[in-house]
TrEMBL record:
UniProt keyword terms in alphabetical order: FAD, Flavoprotein
Pfam families (UniProt xref): ETF, ETF_alpha
The protein's name in its UniProt record: Electron transfer flavoprotein subunit alpha
Gene Ontology MF annotations: electron transfer activity; flavin adenine dinucleotide binding
Cofactor binding description: Binds 1 FAD per dimer.
Keyword Hydrolase belongs to the record: no
Amino acid sequence: MILIVAEHAGGKLGKSTLEMVTAARESGREGPITLLVLGQGVASVAKEAAAVADQVLVADLPGLAQYNAEVWAAATAQIAQEGEASTVIIGGSRSGREYAPRVAVKLDAPYLEDATKLSSNGAALQAQRYTYLARVTETVEADGLVVVTVKPGSFAPASPAAAAGEEYDVELTLPASRVEVTGKSVEKSSRVALTEADVIVTGGRGVGSPENFSAYVEGLADAIGAGVGATRAVVDAGWRPYAEQVGQTGKTVQPKAYIALGVSGAVQHLSGMGKSKHIIAINKDADAPIFKVADYGIVGDVNAIVPALIEAAKQ
Ligand code: FAD
């Protein structure tokens, strides 16, 4: 089987899980696509998972109420071993990259990190990934059982499978963890997360100032229920946090619509959003590279155009 560890939050399957299902379908590896749901009170997640996978393994246990690297690694390795997995796919989130190497060690398997593309080369699993500050794309491969993490936003979210997969409860022997989570504070934001957003409004240096960014980029995003992105120029200038950076050294996104305001369209930016379904750009320079990838473009000043768009969206 191809074992995927589902990422979920608040009783909902994460978009990254659907992306991992696509990665599994494209990998050409043997066996049914199997989603492993770890957590407590995860019945709704398992149900969603069954729509896209061949089978779903559910471990609904009090010991899995909180993410913990030692416990997640032990649980994943145990299921991979018992199910004779050909491949273990884990999300390239911070937590995923924390426990995936531990799974590889437990299984004595090779580990490929941050894949942006997966395929088979005979018996080997082949992965593409960025290296050298994303200036180089390298292809790596490994035989046999492989543990791989997938860079969020690199694969299109999977559509539902032809038939719903079967759900099975699994028994697990969980280790006592040496690390205790003593607190958690969730950032309160009514805005959709960048990697989960269907629509993203991104601001570049052309927006002019942090104040304009808040008024126009955040203003438009809030008016249409979109996520907010930024270019590296804007992040380096300290206008916006790194978490919002889109591009080779930031997040990779694939929304249904990507609205770029005052963004030039440098190659390092395009590599993080070029797979978006529809790209809409506003830039005062008709020769800006962003217009080469844009489906719709307005040549003009963002400061003049965006307030009118926000007004129209509010109505
Ligand atoms: P600029 O290139 O300065 O473009 C501003 C645009 O705004 C221009 O096209 C201009 O015509 C337009 N403009 C100006 N005023 C207005 C106005 N009033 N109305 C409308 N349009 C206006 N970049 C990223 O974004 N993400 C990355 O992850 C990333 N990684 C990188 C990694 C490496 C190794 C390197 C070398 C570079 C990386 N970069 C990345 C930087 C990238 O090369 C560009 O410098 C950056 O994307 C430019 O950001 P920008 O479009 O905001 O700014």
